[in-house]
Each structure stands twice: as structure tokens, then as C-alpha cells.
Amino acid sequence: MKKPWAGRFQERTAKIVETYTESISFDQRLWKYDIQGSIAHAKMLAKQGIIDPTEGKKIVRGLRKIYRSIEKGEFVFSKELEDIHMNIEAALIREIGETGAKLHTARSRNDQIALDLRMLLREETKNIITKLRDLISLIIDLCNRHIDVIMPGYTHTQRAQPVLLSHHLLCYANMFLRDSERFKDSLKRINVLPLGACALAGTSLPIDRKYVAKILGFSSLSINSMDSVSDRDFVVEFISNAAIFMMHISRLAEELILWSSTEFGFIEISDSFTTGSSIMPQKKNPDVAELMRGKTGRIYGNLVNILTMMKALPMTYNRDMQEDKIPLFDTLDTVKMTLETLIQMLPEITFNSAKMTSVSGQGFATATDIAEYLVGKGIAFRRAHEITGRIVHYCIKNKKDLCELSMEEFHQFAEVFDEEIFRRLSPESSVLGRLSEGGASPQQVRSQIEHFTRKLLRKKRAV
User: Fold this and answer.
1) Distances (CA, A) of 219 to 40, 188, 222, 312
2) Alpha carbon distance 176, 129 (integer Å)
């Protein structure tokens, strides 16, 4: 099959080169954006008188016919034509004749692929933002349904202080909200029209880039033709945002894995989102959460891949950049599937509220409450911390819990103790007292939930 650059070359491309250099096996998923961009480009060429208006209409009709053919699964992609751009252009020429060869006027595959990628990422980023909003809504619903459940909070994977389960879950709502905001902010840098940069230097033909931007919904034009075709920052940024999101997913997955273990016993994940063992009949494994944790490394790898590929490329377009689509597409697919799976899995989790509450006061979890009680009695915090530490040591030595101490025993450490201390030692009292803004008290947690509800309503109106 004749190559578009055949005029310069006297020998046919080697078969192994065609196999090695083709990208149609993976970039065919850009077909919709490639055709939409080509239709806008054809309309502009006709409007500007660069091609005859009747030719412009003929090209648009031909492209729409190809669109329907691909949509129905009837289109046959050719590796000999290398990529999605040449496959569609060749099909157009077959469909409408030589007029189809005029479509590539005033553009290059260099600015064409940059356009396709930006259109893809613009659409997919908006879809991901919507899914993140759905995920946050689901977490808020879980918080409302378990608003008063107390659980142990942890530092260093050691029991630290009692908190509300809803407060703990809101950690992830905050993470996913930041993810949503990062993706939304990146849209400003994605939604820039590169078409018109051509190979690298623009064109002498009287094109109208603003007209194309208006048709395709771009908010601005790229301002340097060389940067337009060599820039992949928007791809790097998307994968970076995805890597941060997957890090958050991995943290949540890790806790679901721990909580579902017999040692914790805080949750049970339904059979539909767990698997069994091929040899141990009793096993119920949190494989879905484990895969979410595992796929995080895959996205990190994609980020290193794209950064490494771009790190030493001279201006402007280089064929290395064909490889940008493999990590990008894999990241897109992994993030979307992970989001959808988590959204379906979370409602299938049962929280063992009784177990969480029963262990929330163990391990001297209210020791900090004693120290803060002493501060309220006028004792400096460092001194209060030391006194409380000695009380804990006494309990360990005598195999007692804090709530089992008598007033006489408390007075061994400080005379300021009174009957109020016994009311401070329960997990319920501990969380009720965490009234600082953003704290773990029911009052503050309800305030956080209201904050998220308002945010979600604003985002829903903005979509």
C-alpha cells in the first residue's frame, strides 16, 4: 500500500518495520476524536476558501459515513497504514475519491494526534470527575448510616484514640475530593487547541484556528506551534493525578483488607466481591481489594514510563512520543475500572459495629483524655503527659485497665483527680469531647458531612 511520503522514497518499507512502527493496534480507540477533529478542520478549510465549499461538504459526508462504519464494527483497520489518522484518510479517499486527499491540507499528524489526545482526555477526565463524585456520595451515605459507631483510631498501626467510624471514612472522602479537584484543574491545561501548528511551524495558508476551537469546544489556542506538537505535559499530569488517586485507593484497600481479617473483624465483604482458595475450603479472600492495591504500582509504572520517555526529547515531535498512548490508555482503563468496582463493592460491606465499639477503649486509648483532664486542672501538658504515662505503666504492671482504677490509685499520681475522671475514661466520652474544628466528635463529623453535601450539590450543578 502506498505511503503518504512515497514521493521521497524509492524502496518499499520493510515488513518488519511496518510491524514495529504501527500504532493502529492501540490508537484505533481514538477514531471518534480523529473524525470529529477532521470534520471541524474540513469545515474550516471550506469556510476559509482553502478548499471549495462543495468539497468541504463532500468530505464531511464521507467522514460521517466512516464514523457510522466504525461504530457498527464494520470498518477494517490496516497495519500497513500505521495509525488511526492514515486509516481514516485512506478510507475517505476510497469513499469520495481525490477530494479526500485535500483533508490533510494545513495540518500534520503531529498536531492531529495532539488534538485527538486532548479530546480524549477532556472527555474521560470529566467522566472520572463524575465517578469520583458518585464515590464521595457513597462514602457520605455510609457515614450517615454509621454516624455514631465508635472505633479505635490508629497511628503506627497501634491503637491510639477512639474515633467515629464516620470520621475515619471521611478521610477518604477528603482524599477523593482532592483527586476530583486535581482532575478538574487539569482540564484547563487539557482544553487547549493544538490544531493549526501543523508539523511544527504553522502554515502559510489562511486558516482560522479560533473557528475550529469553537466547533470542538476548546477554551483556548496553543500559542507556540513548536510547543503545540511536542507538549505532552497534559498526559503526564493526567497520569500523575491518576497515580495520586490510586495511592488513595491503595490506602483504602489496605484498610479493608486488614479490617476483614479475623484479627480485626471490623467488616465483612460480601461473597460477590471476595474469592475462595483452591485448597483451603474455609478461606474467604479480599482479592478485589488486594488487586486495587496491586494495580496502584502499575499506574506508578506508567507515570515513570511517560516521564522517562519525554525526559530528553529535543524539539519538536519525535517518534518516541507514539509510545505515550500505551501508558495513558492503560492508566485510563485501570482508573475507570477501579472506580466502578469500588463503587459497586462498598455497599456490599457489612460493618461489625459491636466489635469496633468493644475494642475502641482497649489499649489505654483514653490516656490522652487523662492528660487533657490534668491540663484543665492547671498542670502543664508535659507534666500531665508524664503523670499519665506513669499511670499507664502502673496499669500494665498490675494488669488493670484505666477504668478499673480507684480514686485512691489515681491520687497516687496527682491529688487534683476527682470523680469527673471516671466520666472521661469511656470511648463515648472521649469522642464527645473532640470538639475542635475538624475533630472526631459527632458534632464536628456532622459538620463535615454537611460540608461535603454542599460541595457535591455545587459540583452536580456545575456538570
Assistant:
1) 15, 8, 10, 30
2) 10
Task: Provide the 8-state DSSP code for 380.
Answer: -
Whole-model pTM over 0.85: yes
Distances (CA, A) of 22 to 17, 28, 222, 328: 8, 11, 28, 17
Write the DSSP string, 65-105: HHHHHHHTT-----GGG-SHHHHHHHHHHHHHGGGGGGTTT
Backbone φ, ψ for residue 273 (5° rounding)? -125, 25
> pLDDT tens digits for 220-272?
999 999 999 999 999 999 999 999 999 999 999 999 999 999 999 999 999 99
Radius of gyration from C-alpha coordinates of the chain: 31
Instruction: Determine contact, residues 374/387, Cβ cutoff 8 Å.
Output: yes
* Domains, the chain, with CATH or none: 15-105 (1.10.275.10), 110-359 (1.20.200.10), 367-425 (1.10.40.30)
C-alpha of 428 from chain center: 36
Look at strands 150-155 and 158-164 and give their pairing: antiparallel
Q: Is 156 a catalytic residue?
A: yes
Options 277, 358, 406, 447, the catalytic residue? 277
277 is annotated as an active-site residue? yes
Q: Which of 156, 204, 272, 436 is catalytic?
A: 156
Beta bridge partners, 326, equal: none
- Alpha-carbon torsion angle 107, 110, 112, 114, nearest 10: -140
Element containing residue 425 per DSSP (H, E) = none
Are residues 33 and 113 in contact, defined by beta-carbon separation less than 8 angstroms?
Answer: no
Which pLDDT tens digit goes with each residue over 387-436?
Answer: 999 999 999 999 999 999 999 999 999 999 999 999 999 999 999 999 99
User: Could you write out the DSSP letters of every residue in 275-286?
Assistant: B--SS-TT--B-
What's the CA gap between 175 and 179, in Å, rounded? Answer: 6
